[in-house]
Amino acid sequence: MSTTNSATHLPDDPPTDPTTADDGRSLRRMQFGWYINDWANAAFSATVLTVFLGPYLTSVAKDAADAAGDVHPLGLSIRAGSFFPYTVSFSVLLSVAVMLLTGTVADRTGRHKELMCGFAYVGSLATMGMFFLDGDRYLLGGALLVVANISYAVSVALSYAYLPGLASPDERDKVSSKGWAYGYAGGGLLLIANLALFQGHDAFGLDSGTAVRICLASAGLWWALFTIVPMLRLPSRAGIAPSRTADRTKDGEPAAGSLRELARTLRGMREHPLTLLYLAAFLCYNDGIQTVVSQASLYGSEELGMDQTSLVTAVLLVQVVAIGGALLLGRIAHRYGAKRTILGSLVGWVVTLALGYFMPAHQPAWFYVLACMIGLVLGGSQALSRSLFSHLIPPGREAEYFSFYKVSDRGTSWMGPLVFGLAYQITGSYRSAIISLLVFFVIGFAVLLKVPVRRAIEAVGNPVPERL
Predict the structure, then answer these.
(1) Residue 7's CB: how many other CB atoms inside 10 A?
(2) What residues have CB less than 8 Å from 36, skipping those under 6 apart?
(3) Minimal CA–CA distance to 159: which of 113, 127, 119?
(4) Could you tell me which residues come within 8 angstroms of residue 339 by beta carbon, excluding any fewer than 6 positions away?
(5) In angstroms, rounded to a whole number, what is the distance separating the alpha carbons of residues 156 and 158?
(6) Measuring CA to CA, which residue among 399, 382, 349 is closest to residue 114?
(7) What would the mean pLDDT of 135-162 be, rounded to a whole number?
């Protein structure tokens, strides 16, 4: 890892392999900046996507609905209760193109940090704008969600590209798990403050709607303030080695633009079918994970009859338990390997989903049990998936490959919300919607089981860690 700071780190001067870095203090400084980036953006995932926006935007949409309970964005007739999951799905479809193009630009120019922080600030401003979401302004809420979620997806994808340059192969599970733990700690800390505000809104002279809008805006402010730390501590370029193919075409001429580079990336990925097989498994099972997380508050409020205080308390439990879960599964992976640990966590997700389907309504204690089960497997399954994928990326193409990876990650799944929304559209039952997500875990487990991880790592030319 290069010991130059962010002010002097040039795009054509990439960080070196962390295993040969002489300055351990500089490496730890950069790792801390990367951890704080998770601390910063997790507020959007926890406060906005997971807790407050789903139920609140749904209530705003219902206020704007016609006598049949439908709203009509862009001339389409949809149930008001499906507006939030449909909007999440739409935002992710748009973010795919933005992530892929931005990842290509980042690897080509070496401006990973500038692009990452730039999108973070666009997303934080859109999130702060949610303070103005009241009355029947469901279209404003949908537009702000689209902008914020696209910005969040791109920023996080670029941050993931730093992982190979921040840890040796055998340390990556540990560093990735620690990053997720920081994220859940940051998101949880803000949720504690928001829970206090929401529960005591009368004492502050606020109605519940105003309190929710302040909580939404606070996530944007938190995101903006703590993004200053990675701005100061991370180098401009992510990864271990420069992207030589990103700088030159095969005949030695300068690359002819980002779209051509993107096309070359897509063609190049076909040369690594085992990496694509792992990516397919991840996109499937993690879409299920993210849909459970993003729709849990909607399911709890509409199907199980939980009030806002119970929802916030449950998500706070998820945040707290997920810190320990991420670190625990990281230790298990150190002993048994990341792939086996991820497979075991997917079995835990199936059990959790079944419990949610049969859970009685108006029983907060059972809802809290469900929250603890989600937290136990959530952080670890995602942290280990991220670190395992980092081994399967050709050096110098981190941002591009992680842009594909980020198609299904915190807050950016699209297949799951679409299936969830359609299931509710057809049946009118959120229980049917939640159980429909089982297919993602079953298929993801089956595909991951077939991935020969050691051969996949060797195929891209990366060193193989001792345990897989």
Answers:
(1) 8
(2) 182, 186, 226, 229, 230, 233
(3) 113
(4) 388, 448, 451, 453, 468
(5) 5
(6) 399
(7) 93
Query: What length does the chain have?
Result: 468
Confidence of residue 438 (pLDDT cuts 50, 70, 90): very high
- 403, two tokens: 């842009």
- Say if residue 2's pLDDT is above 80: no
> CA-to-CA distance for 347 and 3, rounded, in angstroms?
42
For residue range 339-397, list pLDDT tens digits in order: 999 999 999 999 999 999 999 999 999 999 999 999 989 878 988 998 999 999 888 78
- Other beta carbons within 10 Å of 247: 17
| Cβ atoms of 3 and 21 closer than 8 Å | yes
The CA distance from 437 to 35, in Å, is: 31
Other beta carbons within 10 angstroms of residue 344's beta carbon come to 16
Residues 363, 454: contact at Cβ < 8 Å?
no
Residue entry with tokens 């670029």: 158
Longest CA–CA separation in the chain, Å: 70
Listed in sequence order, the DSSP H helices in 359-465 are 364-390, 398-405, 415-427, 430-435, 438-449, 453-459
Query: Helices marked H in 110-240 — which ranges?
Result: 112-128, 138-160, 163-166, 172-199, 208-226, 228-233
Short-list 422, 334, 345, 419, CA closest to 378: 345
pLDDT for 261 = 62
Q: Can you tell me the distance from the alpha carbon of 304 to that of 306, in angstroms, rounded to the nearest whole number?
A: 6
Describe the crossing of helices 83-109 and 415-427 by its angle, rounded to 10 degrees: 170
CA dist., res. 58 & res. 79, Å (int): 10
Give all strands (DSSP E) within 48-129, no chain letters: 70-71, 78-79
pLDDT at 262 over 70: no
Dihedral sign for Cα 318, 324, 330, 334, please: negative
pLDDT in tens, 92-133: 888 888 888 888 888 888 899 999 999 999 999 999 999 999
For 351, the token pair is 């059990």
Question: What is the rounded CA–CA span in Å between residue 68 and residue 297?
Answer: 24
265: amino acid identity, one letter: T
Query: Are 438 and 107 a contacting pair, CB within 8 Å?
Result: no
Is residue 286 within 8 Å of residue 336, measured between CB atoms?
Answer: no
CA dist list (Å): 139 to 67, 133, 417: 18, 9, 18
Cβ-in-10-Å burial (0-12, 13-18, 19+) of 267 comes to: exposed
Question: Any residues with CB less than 8 A from the CB of 62 and at least 6 apart, and which?
Answer: 69, 80, 81
Q: What is the CA radius of gyration of the chain?
A: 21
Please tell me whether residue 322 adopts helix, strand or coil conformation.
helix
Torsion of CA 23, 24, 26, 32, to 10 degrees: 170
Q: Is 49 exposed, middle or buried (0-12, 13-18, 19+ CB in 10 A)?
A: buried
